[in-house]
Amino acid sequence: MKILKYLFLLIILFSFGGIVFIATQKNTFTIVKSRVINTPKTAIYNYLNDIKNYKDWFVLDNDNSSLRMEYSKNTFGVGSFYAWSGSDGEGKTTTVISNENDSIVQKTDLDGALSECTWTLKDTLGGTKVTCKTKGEMSFSNKFQTFFNGGVPRVMKRKLEINLVNLDKSLDYELNTFTITSNGIVFKKGCNYLFQRINTKMARLNYNTKILIPYLIEFSNKNKIEVTGNPFVIYNSIDEIKGISNVSICIPIKNKIFTSSVSDIYCSKLEGYKTFKTTLNGDYSHRKTAWKKTSDLIVKNNEIANKSIPLLEVYDKGYLDGLSPSKWKTAIYIAVLSKNSTIPKPINPKPITIKTTNFETTELEPK
Question: What's residue 228's pLDDT?
Answer without folding.
Answer: 96
